Every structure is written in structure tokens, then in C-alpha cells.
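A favour, since you know our C-alpha cells better than I do. What I am after is a single protein written out in full by you. Could you add the entry underneath, on a fresh line?


***
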Amino acid sequence: MQAAYADHLHKPINCSDDLPQTCRPEYAKQREYFYDAEGMRRNLRDVIENGEQEFDALKVDLYDGICDTCASDYADGLLRMRATLSQAAGFPLSGSVIAQFPSMIKAAEKKGCVICWSTTICWSGYTKMNNSLFNTTQETATRLTLCLPLLSRPSTIDEITAIDLIATYMKTFGFGQRNLHGDGPHALAEYDARRKRIQAGLAQLVIVGAATVDSTCLLYRATPECFQYSEALHGDYAASYRQAVQLLIKNDYETIMNRITKENNQL
């Protein structure tokens, strides 16, 4: 979202404080959409069998409904984002059993799904999207190619999950001043779902030769190929995530794991 506003205003936007007052209500509303979608995803895990898979199917269906709108020509990224959100709000979903519950998928939730994809949509110059969307194995595996080369020793799934989760919510866990994934209320409840995606992401990296796992199937480490992949990843998000991981690993693993345990016990 920040890139869309930056393209529209012709200046860097790093947080809501950088926006003029006229843009802040819209920006705040878009953040609400994000949490509407995230709340729907969490509710689906509890009320529908295979809720995560059905949510992914819904996202693919919605992607097919917005991709042409997003790919059209616009004067700037904010106009592209507004048009795409409008298209998403009115698109009739049918690609998931979730569509049987229209009260769960209102315009706000549809817009929120698109806001979730801001890590894969370049609003300020459309780049072709694919089905690698927010909170999927491929997105997690991409983030792990940034994380693993920075770790000083082979690490377990739980250790990697803790580092990855805190790196995206440094402010929430008391290690920094900024949350890469927003300031919403869900960070502390995300560990179990994040761990499953980390496990799947690591498996994908092992398959493509970007990571190895030891004979006990417990400890993972980056391969030279992973270092090469990591060096090819650039941009503000990649730089901020790397910096967060580098700050975290100055602590020992026990300190990091204890912070996760402490915060989860407070839920």
C-alpha cells in the first residue's frame, strides 16, 4: 500500500505519518480491510473442514477476477489499487465452498484479500501476479531464502519459526519499532499456523536444493544455492526483513524462544 501512495504523491511513504491528512482515512480503512480478511481466514479454520485450503481456493478465484483490472494502464499506483479493490468488492466468488456463506465474504473481506497481496502486487508498475499469494508456502519459502543464510548454525523448525515470526512483528514482541506485517491484534496467535507454513516452506527449499536437513530430520541449514537466491532478492521489504533477522540472532535462541512462549502464555 505504501508504494501505491508513494507513486501517487511522488515521495517516499514508510508509515501513515508520512501521508497527508487527506489520505489517512483511506489508508486506515484499507488496513481494516486487511484485518477483516485475516479474521475471516482464522474463523474458517474453526468452522469449515479444510478451511485453509478453501481460503486458498477463494483467493485463486478472486485473483482471476481482478488480474485484468490490475494489469490495465493507470496514471499511478494508487489509482491502480483503488480500481482493483473496487473490482474485488463486486466480484461474485464461486471457486470455494466458502461462497456458500456470503455473510462471511462481504466487500470488506474481498478487499482485504487484495490488500494482503501487496507483497506480490507492484502497484506502481504492474508486474504479473501468480498464485503465490499471501500466507502461502511459496511466499514463506521466499522469505526463508532471506533468513537461512543469516543463521549461524543449523536450526530446528521451531527456532526458524520463532525467528521468522518475530522478524515480521518486531514491535509486537519488543525487539524493534516496526511490524513488517502490520500492527493488528493477530500476531501473538499466529505461531501454529506460521510453523506449518515454515515446515512446508523448508520442505520446498530442500526439494529445490536451497536447504539441507540433517540425518535426524530436525536441523536445517542454507546451501550455496540459497545464498545465491538470497543475494538476488532486493527491495525495501527484503532489506527490512534481513535487518530484523540480523538483530534477532544477536540474541541466543533460548531468549528468542522464551519471548514466543511468554507472549503466547498471555493470550
